[in-house]
Every structure is written in C-alpha cells, then in structure tokens.
Hints:
Elements: E1 4-9, E2 17-22, E3 50-51, E4 62-66, E5 72-77, E6 88-91, E7 98-101
Parallel strand pairs: 3-6, 4-7
Antiparallel strand pairs: 1-2, 4-5, 6-7
Amino acid sequence: xxxxxxxxxxxxxxxxxxxxxxxxxxxxxxxxxxxxxxxxxxxxxxxxxxxxxxxxxxxxxxxxxxxxxxxxxxxxxxxxxxxxxxxxxxxxxxxxxxxxxxxxxxxxxxxxxxxxx
Length: 117
C-alpha cells in the first residue's frame, strides 16, 4: 500500500479525529521531513477546550485564571487544570501571561458559522 496512516481532523467536534490513509509528504529542496511520534500541549484537558494556536502549556506553567469579566481569580500551575472541560487557554499579547477563562460563554462557537459541522 502507498501512503501512510495519519490522524486527520477536517471539522470541529469530539468525533472529528479519524485514522486515514494519506499521501506520504515529500520535502521540497532545502526542507526536511520530521516524523512526529506524539503531540500535545503538556497537560491532559477535558472536553470542549480551546488552546490558542502556538501556545505550549507544561504542567508547571503559571496560568492566570480569569472570571467572566476578565478579572484575575487566582494564579495556578497548569497541572491544577488537568482534566477540566470548557477551558480557553490563551497568551495575553500585552503581558505575555498565560490566561484561562472557565466560563462556557467565553468559548461558545457561533452556531450559524458552524451549522455545517
């Protein structure tokens, strides 16, 4: 068989990940191909969590937990958030602090935009 097996995500949702056969990538001249054995953000998250693109969170990362008015509630190590659902993790572009919003409305998807999922 040609190609390779890969986990593919083509939509949002907990059932969006599929094991599929895809063409094997070929690096262009001056590029390299890196085999990834595992990927993650450093802590296990629950359902419906959103993590800002490019943000890497380790167990020891200090996270500012914000309320629904964006006010600081407390600062925790990320390991304390492990397994929790409905979190939004982002980096504050002014301070560089990693922030977490815990209310569902902060990460609610626009139903009209995602009606096709």
